[in-house]
Amino acid sequence: MSRLDAYLEEKRLAVEKALLRFLPGESEPPARLNQAIRYSVLAGGKRIRPILAIAAAEACGGTEDRVMHAASALEMIHTYSLIHDDLPCMDDDDLRRGRPTNHKVFGEAMAVLAGDALQALAFRLLAENAKVPGVNPAAAAEAAAVVAEAAGSRGMVGGQAADIMAEGRRVEEADVVFIHQRKTEALIRASVLAGAIISGADSHVRQRMSDYGGNLGLLFQVVDDILNVEGDVLRMGKSVGSDEARGKATYPAAVGLDEAKRRAGQLASRARDSLAGLPGKTDVLADLADFVLKRES
Amino acid sequence: MSRLDAYLEEKRLAVEKALLRFLPGESEPPARLNQAIRYSVLAGGKRIRPILAIAAAEACGGTEDRVMHAASALEMIHTYSLIHDDLPCMDDDDLRRGRPTNHKVFGEAMAVLAGDALQALAFRLLAENAKVPGVNPAAAAEAAAVVAEAAGSRGMVGGQAADIMAEGRRVEEADVVFIHQRKTEALIRASVLAGAIISGADSHVRQRMSDYGGNLGLLFQVVDDILNVEGDVLRMGKSVGSDEARGKATYPAAVGLDEAKRRAGQLASRARDSLAGLPGKTDVLADLADFVLKRES
Predict the structure, then answer these.
(1) How far apart are CA A10 and CA A58, in angstroms?
(2) Helical axes B283-294 vs B48-59, angle rounded to 10°
(3) A149 CA to chain B: closest CA distance, Å?
(4) Predicted ipTM > 0.85
(5) Angstrom distance (rounded) from CA A35 to CA A48
(6) Please, which residues have CB within 8 angstroms of residue B152's CB and are 6 or more apart in sequence?
(7) What distance in Å separates the CA atoms of residue A181 and residue A188, rounded to the nearest whole number?
(8) If contacts are CB pairs under 8 Å, which of residues 141-170 in chain B contact chain A?
(9) CA–CA distance from A193 to each of A122, A171, A293, B16 (Å)?
(10) Within chain A, what is the greatest distance between any pair of CA atoms?
């Protein structure tokens, strides 16, 4: 196991533990809603957004404990977006991480509400991060605002809206960039930035972290697009080739598969370059760029 | 025009102005999403939650300016909940405030996303309230946490989930109370509390404000239930008698119409009593309890 693999495993377990602590109990009423929430949050996944927040915090002199509320919140926002994206009126997916999607198990109404409740819980945790010992409340509030902006109409939700509107249309590269910057990049960039801000990073370090997160986030989506073309259905736990079948706006559709792969390599380099010369321990973040570039699921 | 009417009109206009300032522009991309967001937020309404936050702030020595971010956020959370509640998979309503519901105009996908984006924007504003001059960032963060708890699985969303699960079943009074406490009371109580907390209220005043908000919130829902039985469809701008047709859990269904009216009077008295002896200007809040009791739409 490489050094990065060990780090990812350690942090993933810490995040899982925190999620269990923060989630409503499965027998707490209304039980059906809380079961729907837990079903999707506890379905596994790499927990890449919370781990990025923690790694960014550590690179800026902060600690895991001081950003765990925000880190958990980022995973909840990501999960709520998956629940809503899978709805019949959106991407209409039956399978997610190898299991039936939330609305397939709990019905559409409960899936909408589980997503809504998860977003509220995420912002409760971001607000409560202000009370964690050693955290400056003003910095925690600023991190919450950064995440909220990245999650909303100028970020993730705006990207999903543009994605749906672009379906079946001929896409230019500019459309793909617009969608990807919002749908995936925004929340990944905010994950890195939130960890840095809560850990007291100054404006110079924040800018570098923002550049790193932006390149990594775009890389993440380009690799996702490539995997949707040539990935392994068993490893992915979701349909392969589905983007093309739906006429989705993707990098391979806009610039071709080979060019998409070249761009991915370029984005990984740029992410690493953003970290050059920073004072803190940035090796995990640098390794993460390679990890995202080479991931197979 | 009574003193309260003049106050409500002045504050309603101030809130409308703030909402226009905080909402994304209608031509900002993705334009269709932003149009959907604006369609529902700018559809009118009494703006009772933001006005409660402002009135509570003023009763605790605060000012309208210092709580306007939070006040606007409360209206956005309320609006997003209406958009999602109206969806075909939920209450399946075609009419809201006398106009076609959001999904009837923009489609289901855009309605889900407009609601999601509004919730994110609400929590961005709550986070940014920490930066407003004269506001203690820790107090703003605490108010954000209170609102988030009231909006989530232990509050508004939990109430809607319980409401949907109770549809068509025989309801006991305890079920109605469980649903109403979450679906309506939680956010109205949080509106009052948020205004008080951001204005620096101590724990004694907060408790009284919480009692006031709780009684007022329950009153609000009991009156809503009564109006659904005997209200005027033109004034309400939505269907009358729809609760009964759907077998909804309401006070009139659980305890009868006359007893529901007696409870409403009792809740208004209790709301006023919660304010007794408080140092600040609480007359607006007291008048608001009568206003809610006597409203006809």
Answers:
(1) 14
(2) 150
(3) 6
(4) yes
(5) 23
(6) A117, A120, A121, A124, B158
(7) 10
(8) 141-142, 144-145, 148-149, 151-155, 157-158, 160-162, 164-165
(9) 16, 30, 21, 33
(10) 52
In sequence order, the β-bridge partners of residue B96 are B99
DSSP label of B45:
-
Two structure tokens written together for A38: 């837990």
A239-278 residues touching B, CB cutoff 8 A: none
Backbone φ and ψ for A26, nearest 5 degrees, come out as -75, -15
The shares of helix, strand and coil residues in chain B, as percent rounded to the nearest 5, are 75, 0, 25
**Angle of the B173-180 helix axis to the B156-166 helix axis, nearest 10:** 150
Exposure letters A230-260 (e unless 16+ CB within 10 A, then b): ebeeeebbbebeebeeeebbbbbbbbeeeeb
DSSP labels for A88-132? TTTT--SEETTEE-HHHHH-HHHHHHHHHHHHHHHHHHHHHGGGS
Show the domains of chain B with their CATH numbers. 3-294 (1.10.600.10)
Residue at A44: amino acid letter = G
Residue B86 burial (10 A CB sphere; 0-12, 13-18, 19+):
buried
Among the listed residues B118, B207, B70, B209, the one whose alpha carbon sits nearest the alpha carbon of residue A141: B70
In this complex, do B153 and A120 lie within 8 Å of one another by their Cβ atoms?
yes
pLDDT tens digits for range A255-276: 899 999 999 999 999 999 999 9
Task: Report how far residue B143's alpha carbon sits from residue B285's, in angstroms, rounded to the nearest whole number.
Answer: 19
What pTM did the predictor assign? 0.96
B95: helix, coil or strand?
strand
Ramachandran quadrant class, A72 (left: phi over 0; alpha: psi -120 to 50; beta: rest): alpha
pLDDT tens figures, B22-55: 999 999 999 999 999 999 999 999 999 999 999 9
CA dist., res. A150 & res. B127, Å (int): 13
Alpha helices for chain A (secondary structure H): 3-22, 31-41, 48-59, 64-85, 102-106, 108-128, 137-151, 156-166, 173-180, 186-198, 203-230, 233-236, 242-246, 251-255, 257-274, 283-294
